[in-house]
Design a protein that fits this description.
The structure holds 3 protein chains of 3 kinds.
Chain A (H helix, E strand, L loop, with lengths): L8 H34 L2 H9 L1 H22 L3 H34 L10 H23 L2 H31 L4 H33 L6 H11 L1
Helix pairs in contact in A: 1-2, 1-3, 1-4, 1-5, 2-4, 3-4, 4-7, 5-6, 5-7, 6-7
Chain B lengths: L1 H55 L4 E10 L2 H4 L9 H6 L3 H11 L6 H8 L6 H11 L7 E7 L2 H7 L16 H12 L3 E5 L2 H4 L12 H32 L5 H15 L2 H15 L7 H25 L3 H9 L4 H29 L3 H5 L20 H9 L5 H31 L4
Antiparallel strand pairs in B: 1-2, 1-3
Chain C lengths: L5 H6 L5 E2 L7 E12 L3 E12 L3 E5 L6 H8 L10 E8 L2 E2 L7 H7 E4 L10 H12 L5 H14 L3 H4 L12 H13 L5 E5 L7 H14 L4 E5 L3 H7 L2 E6 L2 E7 H6 L4 H7 L5
Parallel strand pairs in C: 1-11, 4-9, 4-10, 7-8, 8-9
Antiparallel strand pairs in C: 2-3, 2-5, 5-6, 10-11
Helix pairs in contact in C: 4-5, 4-7, 5-7, 7-8
The chains are: A mainly alpha, B mainly alpha, C alpha/beta.
Chain lengths: 234, 436, 276
């Protein structure tokens, strides 16, 4: 990524503001995900209810950032790294918004779950999944903040672990389903939550891909998947 | 913060406002200077024009005397007979015809001295007019006829009111007895003023009443023709070469350029000396010939035409040259198809102004002998002749009073020619001018 | 991507990055071209680039970067500038255009040029277009010349507007029409290559758009090299873009590559407006 300033200082400032807004949005999403998962893990209904109310801020930021981006495309005609940056921001913002939605979902399910206090026991199996996803999200946002493509490529790999955790959690929950037919409803809700957490991991992976795109200019989306698929076939 | 801004702004406004008055005053003053200088020059110009035309007016009319001429054999000193050859008629005596007629009008004049004065009332050229008349119409011989003859320049001047009759006799060219005779002639309706056609059709003469500028006009025409034929093609060719082909940043070309510019500023008399040394002494061309005059003026006009042509060529936009080259025109095609046609108005204007300058030039022509008295009208490039400005110079130097009017009249003619040439320059420029 | 400050980058300017040479047939080809003005003032350093058939090559770069100089080398317009010396090889269909037995007049009938300022001759529209064919004797008679003029005007998209006033002066047209007239004048000589030196810099956006559209249409029959100061224009019209910097060809690449992900940082700096 080019570090030299533009001739137009205003353009520079606009790009800087855009970056700050995206990071701000990232922070909100991170908070919302952390709160929702914390409520899920610890069964805090109140926290879950509060967390589910925060989503409107994220949505508002998405709209605002999208508008900024379309304005800059129309008025500044960005090219090369600037173009990639703005284009990636549009995508990142979509992913962040989805993460916000997933967090809201988790919070809502948690609020419903917690009324049945006895189902607390299988939350522990989620702990590791949540932990990895949190780390991944925070690392992805960090990569964007620093535009660090090398780190982003490392963070990408974390998604495999998250996916593995999710499969693990699914297996445990399936066992619960078989064992405890009375709480089938709760178990399914927890499964939904686990899925949402896994989706957040996927979105974080996307952000890392966009960071690589901004910095290196090449699109690595689906390439890795394709490579691994080909590798498997061999 | 913003209050301070506004305050400083208001301060600025005040400062600017204070200086505005001064600035406008300066502008008005400058305008006034300009108007003053223009009106001053207009004043001088109109004074000059008025003075010259005023002085020239008398030269456009001439005084004629009506005399009863007796074409008797005796007076003509011809043998009586019925037929005369042209040669006989040519060599007959016409000198006494006018004198005798005058003596008849004034029989009281018997004194030899007075008779001579009376005789000179008529221009010395009158006898030749009578001769022409007789040759043309031999049947006049033996008859008596009243004929208008040209009066002497002094009578002419008096008739035009240029001599004041109230002056004491000693200070006036027309003496008292002459006054009486003139009054008598006038009372008899024998004095008349007519349009001076001879001024435009005759050559130079020692007698002002017979002097004309046709010789000078023809001399100028031949001289200008030579100048134009030589300087226009050579000047344009030189300018095209210097502007389009000559290597840039070459010391030799630079030297030529500097010299051409200097040549334009060389006093014209120097060209005359050059012409004398080269054309007349070295090449042995005849003195006073329009050919030599044209060659000298060609040298003088050449730098002017080169400079004007170069400026005109330079002003052709480079985009036109590029366009021509871009579609594959050669350099010569580019110049002849585009550059020269576009530069033509400028070239023509410059050339005509150069020619006008040459037309008004006298100093170099003095050096090559065009100042000689030439009564004959030149018929070709080698005939001795003079040109308009030199004619003016000659006349202004002549002692007879009537030459003052002739000088001014010649100046008027010269000015008219110059005006016409400048008009032509403007018309040509308008006609050839292409907008791009 | 090469990284570093501008000064460092300039000092280490090596070979042109990207794809200056094309694999298939090229119409014109420059190899190791150096151009000097008076007293060994070098304007262009070691430039090698190909012009493919039926492609538009855009040349961009800051003022004084040598793009116009290179363009003018391609049809030897630089010959008219005194003290201009061209080294290296420029070929048209494999023939060296600077070899002694190639006449620049002949070359210019094969490599036409359109200039920055619309410069129709102060003659009628017809005479403007007919000038080149008349010079080279391309039409045997008046009818053929009429056809050639009509064909050129149709190709340049000016026929409809001017067919009723072919005898009116070409300078009476609007700026965009004048530029199209200049293009018609150029293609009337039936060149293989058309060079355009900032052809729209003196035109309004609508006229610019018509010229750009015309260039797109001409691409099917001609090879076009265009120097432009407008990066957007280069992006809109060209197939490949060449970026020049201080007499050196920094990068040549597919236009969409240059404008989304240039290889060289100087190119990146220039097209993102960071040039300093």
């Amino acid at each position: 990524m080019n570090t030299q300033d533009h001739i137009s200082k205003e353009y520079n400032d606009e790009l800087e503001q855009l970056r700050a807004k995206v990071l701000n949005m990232g922070g909100l999403v991170e908070d919302s995900f952390n709160d929702a998962t914390k409520a899920l893990l610890k069964g805090k209904v109140q926290l879950a209810r509060e967390a589910s109310k925060e989503d409107y801020k994220i949505n508002a930021l998405e709209v605002s950032i999208d508008e900024d981006c379309s304005n800059m495309i129309a008025l500044r005609q960005p090219a090369a790294s600037d173009l990639r940056n703005i284009f990636a921001v549009v995508k990142i913002v979509t992913d962040l918004e989805r993460m916000g939605d997933e967090s809201e979902k988790i919070a809502k399910f948690t609020a419903e779950l917690s009324t049945n206090s006895h189902s607390m026991k299988f939350y522990n199996s989620l702990k590791s999944l949540v932990q990895n996803t949190r780390e991944m999200l925070s690392a992805a946002l960090d990569c964007y903040a620093r535009l660090d493509a090398e780190k982003a490529l490392e963070v990408l790999e974390l998604d495999n672990e998250v996916d593995a955790e999710f499969i693990n959690v699914n297996r445990i929950l399936t066992t619960y389903l078989l064992e405890d037919i009375k709480n089938i409803e709760d178990t399914i809700k927890v499964m939904w939550c686990a899925r949402s957490i896994e989706r957040v991991g996927d979105h974080a992976k996307n952000i890392c891909e966009y960071v690589v795109y901004i910095v290196k200019g090449n699109d690595i989306r689906h390439v890795i998947d394709e490579e691994s698929r080909q590798g498997r076939e061999k | 913060m913003w209050l301070e801004d506004i305050e400083s702004n208001m301060n600025n406004t005040k400062i600017v406002q204070a200086s505005l008055k001064k600035r406008y005053a300066k502008e008005r003053r400058f305008k006034a200077y300009g108007i003053f200088s223009i009106s001053l020059s207009l004043l001088f110009l109109s004074f000059l024009l008025f003075d010259i035309t005023h002085k020239a007016m008398p030269a456009f009319t001439q005084t004629y005397l009506k005399l009863d001429i007796d074409f008797s054999y005796k007076n003509l000193k011809l043998k009586e007979g019925s037929r005369y050859s042209e040669k006989e008629l040519f060599s007959a005596s016409y000198r006494q015809l006018t004198s005798k007629s005058l003596y008849e009008i004034f029989p009281e004049v018997t004194n030899r001295k007075d008779k001579k004065v009376l005789r000179n009332f008529v221009s010395s050229g009158a006898q030749y007019n009578l001769r022409d008349l007789v040759i043309e119409n031999p049947s006049l011989i033996g008859t008596k006829k009243s004929i208008w003859v040209l009066a002497d320049d002094d009578i002419d001047s008096f008739a035009k009111g240029l001599i004041d009759r109230n002056l004491p006799e000693s200070e006036r060219r027309i003496k008292d007895n002459q006054l009486v005779w003139i009054d008598t002639l006038e009372a008899d309706n024998r004095i008349e003023k007519r349009l001076n056609i001879g001024f435009l059709t005759q050559g130079d003469s020692r007698e002002p009443e017979q002097a004309g500028i046709w010789g000078a006009i023809k001399g100028s025409f031949f001289t200008m023709l030579i100048t134009l034929i030589l300087s226009f093609p050579i000047g344009v060719a030189a300018a095209v070469y210097l502007e389009e082909f000559a290597p840039k940043n070459n010391w030799f070309v630079d030297l030529i350029e500097v010299n051409i510019n200097n040549l334009a500023a060389v006093p014209s008399v120097v060209f005359g000396i050059l012409g004398l040394a080269v054309y007349i002494n070295l090449f042995g061309l005849p003195r006073s010939a329009p050919l030599v005059g044209g060659l000298v003026l060609f040298l003088m006009t050449l730098p002017t035409i080169i400079i004007a042509t170069r400026a005109a060529i330079k002003s052709v936009p480079p985009s036109i040259r590029e366009a021509a080259l871009g579609v594959g025109a050669s350099k010569m095609q580019m110049i002849s198809h585009h550059v020269l046609p576009l530069a033509m108005p400028g070239i023509l204007t410059g050339s005509i102004i150069g020619m006008a300058q040459a037309l008004g030039e006298s100093a170099p022509l003095l050096m090559i002998g065009m100042v000689a008295f030439v009564a004959d009208i030149p018929q070709g490039f080698m005939d001795p002749s003079t040109v308009l400005p030199v004619q003016i110079f000659i006349w202004s130097d002549s002692p007879e009073r009537a030459f003052i009017a002739l000088t001014s009249a010649a100046i008027v003619v010269l000015l008219i020619f110059l005006f016409l040439m400048n008009l032509l320059a403007i018309i040509l420029r308008k006609k050839f001018e292409t907008r791009w | 991507m090469r990284k570093g400050t501008d000064v460092e980058l300039l000092q280490n300017l090596g070979d042109t990055v990207g794809k200056p040479l094309i694999d298939g047939d090229s119409r014109m080809s420059c190899s190791k071209v150096d151009v000097f003005y008076n007293n060994n003032n070098q304007a262009i350093f070691d430039i090698s680039v190909d012009l493919g058939k039926n492609e538009i090559l855009a040349m961009i770069g800051p003022s004084g970067c040598g793009k116009s100089t290179l363009l003018r080398c391609l049809n030897r317009m630089n010959d008219t500038i005194e003290g201009c010396k061209v080294e290296g090889e420029i070929t048209l269909d494999g023939i060296d255009v600077y070899s002694k037995n190639i006449d620049p007049v002949l070359l210019r009938s094969n490599v036409g040029m359109v200039f920055q300022k619309p410069n129709p001759f102060p003659k009628s529209i017809y005479d403007n277009v007919a000038y080149g064919p008349r010079l080279h004797g391309l039409a045997r008679n008046g009818a053929e010349l009429d056809d050639l003029v009509e064909e050129s005007l149709i190709k340049s998209g000016l026929w409809k507007e001017t067919k009723d006033r072919l005898n009116k002066p070409g300078t009476g047209l609007s700026g965009g029409q004048q530029q199209r007239l200049c293009i018609a004048r150029t293609i009337a000589v039936k060149p293989e290559v058309i060079l355009m030196d900032e052809p729209t810099s003196a035109l309004d956006p609508i006229a610019t758009a018509t010229i750009e559209e015309l260039m797109y249409e001409l691409k099917s029959s001609y090879t076009i090299a265009v120097v432009t100061h407008s990066m957007q224009q280069a992006a809109r019209i060209s197939d490949r873009t060449a970026y020049f910097h201080l007499g050196r060809l920094v990068e040549v690449n597919e236009t969409n590559k240059v404008f989304t992900n240039p290889e060289h940082e100087l190119t990146e700096n220039y097209i993102t407006g960071r040039f300093g």
